[in-house]
Amino acid sequence: MASPLSRRTLLQSAMLAGAASGVTATASVRASAATLPPPASWTLQPFPLRDVRLGDGVFAGKRQLMLDHARGYDVNRLLQVFRANAGLSTRGAVAPGGWEGLDGEANGNLRGHYTGHFLTMLSQAHAGTGEQVYADRIRTMVEALAEVREALRRDPAVLAVDGRFGSAAENVRGSHQFVDLPSGVLDGAASITLSAWVKPTHEGNWARIFDFGDNTTRYMYLAARTANGVPRFALTTGGPGAEQGLDGTSALPLNRWSHLAVTIADGAGTLYVNGSAVARNTAMTLTPAALGTPADNWLGRSHFSADPVFAGAFDEFNVWSRALTADEIAALQNNRAADTPAGRGDRASYAFDETTGATFADASGRGLHATLRRTWGGPSHPGFLAAYPETQFIQLESMTSSDYTKVWAPYYTAHKILRGLLDACLATDDDQALDLASGMCDWMYSRLSRLPDATRQRMWGIFSSGEYGGIVEAIVDLHSITGKAEHLALARLFDLDKLIDACAANTDTLDGLHANQHIPIFTGLVRLYDATGEERCLTAARNFWGMVVPQRMYGIGGTSTGEFWRAPGVIAGTISATTAESCCAYNMLKLSRMLFFHEQEPAYMDYYERALYNLVLGSKQDTADAEKPLVTYFIGLTPGHVRDYTPKQGTTCCEGTGMESATKYQDSVYFRKADGSALYVNLYSPSTLDWAEKGVTVTQTTDYPREQGSTLTVRGRSEAFELRLRVPSWATAGFRVTVNGQTVDGTPRPGSYFAVSRTWQDGDTVRVTSPFRLRVERALDDPSLQTLFYGPVNLVARNSATSYLEFGLYRNAALSGDLLPSLTPVTGKPLHYTLGGTEFAPFFEGTEDPAHAYFRRTEPRVVFGTTESGVANPAKADGTTLLDEVWAGAPFSSKDVLVTRVRTTVDAWVAAGLLGRADGDRVVRTAEQASFVR
Fold first, then answer.
1. CB-count burial class (<10 Å; 0-12, 13-18, 19+) for 25
2. 259 CB neighbour count, 10 Å cutoff
3. Cβ distance 269 to 233 under 8 Å?
4. Which of 473, 474, 472, 549 is nearest to 510 (CA)?
5. What's the confidence (pLDDT) of residue 491?
6. pLDDT, mean over the chain
7. Which residues contact 909 (CB under 8 A, 6 or more apart)?
8. What is the DSSP string of 885-923?
9. Mean pLDDT calculated for residue range 686-704
10. DSSP for residue 153
């Protein structure tokens, strides 16, 4: 179990790292970085991003697009929803929209999550490039979030803006703020005039300018806008169906001052807009006196909880105990009430001239001073930080079923913010970021520790609303810095025992579960194992991984259909336009990586290569865009699917993880043994490793995966260590390693690591040759449905057809078993081929071409080396064909060996009554006569 890293140690390591890199520190943010202490349970350790530099290639090109996005996007837009929630000025910024705004899916109940992702992206960008611009942006965001937390801890304060006559009070949309007037404003009045200057900033239907009443039965309101888009005044003692009202004739303009007034006297009511009477009701039997002394007297808030709070500014609000004349109303258009014949309201008069505090003075002489309040009550609890009120968290505690329109995964959003702050702290040594992160965990512990275990188990089992992402991993990481016992205790409060116990027992209960809600739970469990040594955690994570790979995995490395898992082994039966949610691959990569730190099972890195080089790379469009990261949400695998790089309404979870993925491509290229005795090369990618402890650098020069191998050059001082080179599971022939031109003895085994042990000298060169071959992978539940791979690269057919294409691949198969000779290379386009007039291209290319990741395999005739036998290709009941059985014996060392395989197979099929003798003889003769590519 790793001991906590003290703040002093953290800072020392950060300063050492900065000194080693030669980066100059600044006063505001030291351009240095610390790393979390690797747990004692990790037999392998990663290198920080700053120690691995990407070279030119596929990864660098994709990353540059994302770095430019990170550099150019206005972070004030991300901060808008946080500042609005705190009642602070949003500085004119417009929220990103989509999931990160009030108008997005489920009323924007996930807002704030994207800001956390963006902080992580900036942190990784800074760590990976050393560019100060990213550190400066982090500092801007952290300072703003600290200001937000402080504002949430106190009563709301007026946000003064320019008014119609002087100063005015603005209610920022999303602030949940309203003005609370004392009781007695109406005070049983039979005749009345209410007058207000307002400047709406949003078209919020049924947002109230004022609402006086007791509940949803007895009230009097003036709405700035109804569902018909016009203002409405109404008075009732019998609920909505008994309203006596006045409706305007046109909408109030946004971002412009409008004057509204309502008069009631002698059974008649009149609504004025900008001095003109727009509605009159002469049959009103109710007056404000019918309400008595209302309990609630609000400006900007409705008694109906579903109605939005008024977004905009208030200038003068006056109440008179008589009905003003039309001329008096007209005089209010160009002057303060005090300077008109009507004078200030004698019941209440608010000028909203205040520039500080939360109190608005009543100038009527009655002393009815008003107070600015939040709909959700008093100040938030210490440490709370979010872009919405604590009510999301409070409501979750009593929920028994999912309703994301009310509560959408508040602890998931908290995780993204927490992770972003923690990454900011580590990337830039920012004390304030650490304080914000620690405070969030203190707040969560104070909230969750008082709940019964049964309540928490119910919460975490609720679809969507109870989702909490990778929060356990982040909390354990924070605990390794703070050492606070409460933080480790908090991490245990997220245990979802039903799922964890099942996986620990290797019982598969994933069918019907939301995939991305549950994958990160297991990464957190691995980190809990690191902190506590509890074997149940590691066992559950290991078993879970095996339930997904390959049982619920598509060829490109993705999992889930419509965001959910189905029964194991069902691949073809789950293909849809909403397969392979990108977030799932992001989280499966994290889990695979972390499991590999404990157990060097090559399958973890085989999966890592598969998902990274295909789904993750392919999820990023190869186009620059300042506004959007251009990352997929789903990757549909249906025939002719076109990838959507601007999914849903934007700022989705997958765009967030996509920003992260594209700025950490190099994080798993190299690992080192905990004792420094070995260097693992997990991925072949152009890059340079600075292994400071050894005083050496290792540079990979390659265009992989366009090149079938890589050259590694060791520079620096003489050091002894074992170089462990991954032999991909698909590298079934020809994998070869040389050092300084000399072949290294040993037999590389597919799906393993090949070790080279020596004392390395400056300039030593290692050449890894890893020949690709074209192969197919069959859907587990339908062997005829296949996907094509060339080495690590998934090749997709570009074709607009919306039904599965049919292809045969044995026609010119090589003796090695390589199917590539059946395809024709496209000149000038590496990894592009044609077959039957259809072009195949790498999945990782981020285009909008209609694609077929799966095709229907059909081999109707027996053909060898393009020579036709004239014999139909027979099949067994399970779909296995004669050619399948022949080529299952590849590679063949010679044509004679292949012909022997053909003869033996034919004899077996003839004996089984599956093939006639005459046809069998023709098949053998065709094989004997054919010419084969080696």
1. middle
2. 21
3. yes
4. 549
5. 98
6. 95
7. 874, 882, 885, 915, 920
8. HHHTT---SSHHHHHHHHHHHHHHHHHTTSS-HHHHHHH
9. 98
10. T
pLDDT(29) > 50: no
Q: In 3-state terms, what secondary structure has residue 19?
A: helix
Which residue, among 444, 456, 450, has the nearest Cα to 488 in the 3D structure?
Answer: 444
Q: Please say whether the beta carbons of 204 and 356 come within 8 A.
A: no
**Assign residue 791 a region: left if phi > 0, alpha if psi is -120 to 50, beta otherwise?**
left
3-state secondary structure string, 665-724? CCCCCEEEECCCCEEEECCCCCEEEEECCCCEEEEEECCCCCCCEEEEEEEECCEEEEEE
Q: Taking the CA atoms of 195, 196, 197 and 203 in sequence, report the sign of the dihedral they define.
A: negative
- Residue 274 backbone zone (phi > 0: left; psi -120 to 50: alpha; other: beta): left
For the beta carbon of residue 842, count every other beta carbon within 10 angstroms: 22
What percent of the chain has pLDDT above 90? Answer: 95
Strand bridging mode 678-681 / 719-727: parallel
- Residue 229, phi then psi, degrees to nearest 5: 90, 10
* Cα–Cα distance measured from residue 278 to residue 250, given in angstroms and rounded to the nearest whole number: 9
Q: What angle do CA 509, 510, 513 make, to 5 degrees?
A: 125
Pairwise CA distance, residues 595 & 669, whole Å: 15
CA distance 767 to 615: 28
Q: How many residues does the chain have?
A: 934
DSSP 436: H
CA 467 to chain centre: 13
CA 495 to CA 445: how far, in whole Å? 14
> How would you label 83-120 residue by residue, b for 16+ Cβ within 10 Å and e otherwise?
bbbbbbebeebebbbbbbbbebbbbbbbbbbbbbbbbb
Q: Counting beta carbons within 10 angstroms of the beta carbon of residue 731, is it exposed (0 to 12), middle (13 to 18) or buried (19 or more)? A: buried
Residues 6 or more apart in contact with residue 638 via CB below 8 angstroms: 575, 576, 577, 579, 802
Q: Are 600 and 43 within 8 A, CB to CB?
A: yes
| Tokens 């079934």 -> residue | 732
Between CA 281 and CA 299 the distance in angstroms is: 24
In contact, 88 and 80? CB cutoff 8 Å: no
Confidence of residue 471 (pLDDT cuts 50, 70, 90): very high
What the block records as the tokens of 508 is 């598969």
574 in Cβ contact with 558 (< 8 Å): no
Task: Please tell me whether the peptide bond between 240 and the residue prior to it is cis, using omega within 30 degrees of 0.
Answer: no
Question: Taking a C-beta distance cutoff of 8 angstroms, is the pair 193, 185 a contact?
Answer: no
